[in-house]
Amino acid sequence: MKDYEHPFFRPLWRRVTIVVVCVAWSIFEFVTGAPFWGMIAGGFAVYAVWQFFYLYKPVDPAAPPPETKE
Do the domain assignments include residue 62? Predict the structure, then answer.
């Protein structure tokens, strides 16, 4: 999840799915009596929201591709 600008994460549904899975995992861990792992999964969910919805900048399809230094 560190490379939030990777092309894999461009579709909104993939970013939403990752957050939902992390939240569901956190809830599962709390329900089964493992609050430590529930907090870790909850932290993943918060981090995913931060990366995929706060920091993420959608790519403009009309914009030219970024230049690479060689």
Answer: no
HSE-up of 66 (CA within 13 Å, CB side)? Answer: 6
Domain tally, the chain:
1
Residues 6+ apart with CB under 8 A from 30: 38
Q: What is the pTM of this model?
A: 0.74
Under 8 Å between Cβ of 36 and 55: no
pLDDT tens string 14-69: 889 999 999 999 999 999 999 999 999 999 999 989 988 887 766 666 666 666 66
